[in-house]
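All the exercises in this workshop are built on plain-text protein records. A learned vocabulary of local backbone shapes supplies the integers on the structure line. Once this layout is familiar, the rest of the handout is easier to follow. An example says more than a description, so a record of this kind follows:
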Amino acid sequence: MCDEELSEGEAVGGDTSPLLSQQQPAGPLAARHCPEDSYNLVYIIFFLMGIGSLLPWNVFITAKQYWLYKLSNGSSPANSKSSTVYTLCSQVYNRFHTGPGISFRFSSRVRILFSLLVILVVFVVTTALVKVDMSGCRMQFFGGTLASVALVSGASNIFSGSVFGISGHFPMRISQAIISGQAMGGTLSALASIVDLAASSDVTDSALVYFITADVFTLVCIVMYLLLPRLSYSSESRSVSHSSSQNRVTTKIVKYLSCTRSESTSGSVPPLKPILKKTWVLGSCVFYVFFISIMIFPALSSGIQSMNKDSGSPWATTYFVPLTSFLLYNVADFCGRQVTAWLQVPGPTSRMLPLLVVSRSALVPLFMFCNYQPRYHLHSVFFAHDLFPVVFVCLLGISNGYLGTLPMIYGPKVVPRELAEPAGVVMSFFLTLGLAVGSAFSVALVHSI
């Protein structure tokens, strides 16, 4: 019923054209089609949900020492293969749970709330087990950890794709808020790991803080999502004095949100062919940006060591990798994504965009010939100084943030308005596919050095 109402409204106003046409007026793209957003509350809500879409997974990664402690019975380091096993498990799960067809079989409200509840339940159970002695059932705990990581990873991807899908009904600045929020989630987890290295003496205390933070933030995301339709209804009364074209966009957003509140499951799958016809170039750009990024970060970049490691200084031994690889990358990535709020160049139809995306391939050999250790096949190190990985990580992060965000926010705007949400989900699928393929190639890349 909701889709019919929206379609009827579009038929009356003739509003079936793409949100971005090839003949674009001058001015920042993010400034067009903007409904009233008092105090930027809608932007803040989507920014917080962007953080929440990746923070749980980042928390699992950040608490690596806790998992090693639990799985080794608190006496000796656990086999590092455990990290690889649950990472591969989660990635296999992702591939089966982020396809566009699955995302379209249920309403966005059901997908978002269900995925958040799954994450919340998993983290509440995980938090409760932090101080419990699991020495007598380590294998059962290991199996439960595998299942937990798979559930959190899959639910996070469903949540992320669904939120990005509904952002297609909003101005582009809202899509940019989600993507910037995701980068902020990575930055916060990187900061937490560094603070943990400097201040914490008990891995279980650190893990408890990480998991409680994830619990609270997941609850915040649930509250924010439930609050979102109410804010949109209140903004409808403020949009009466706006121009007629702006009123049409605002009314469509409010109609959509009111529909998602009462919408149950939907069995129909939107037509993918017209969506892919309009977005395949942008989707390919998203795929390749994240393919290159995940091939380098973190598998390759985190293996680059300081040339002064033997000096024994804390910078070279303890903080070099967390600072230069994880924190610096996430900060640069956040900055690149944030720039797209004010600058959208090149445009969605420009040939320069694919060229810039492909040019990032040059970053792969640059990282390969830094001081990555251990080396078995390529013994030459051309970029030996510690400054080189710092510069290269900055380039990788900024280009990932900027060139990854542009096609993501363009995608839902180059299709007819009624296809904006499924187009957003399709773009999210391209992103996930790039991460999957890049992860596989990173294993081969590391073994080739």
Residues 203-238 form the longest helix (36 residues). The chain has a mean pLDDT of 79. Residues 18-269 form a domain with the Growth Hormone; Chain: A; fold (CATH 1.20.1250). DSSP finds 16 helices and no strands in the chain.
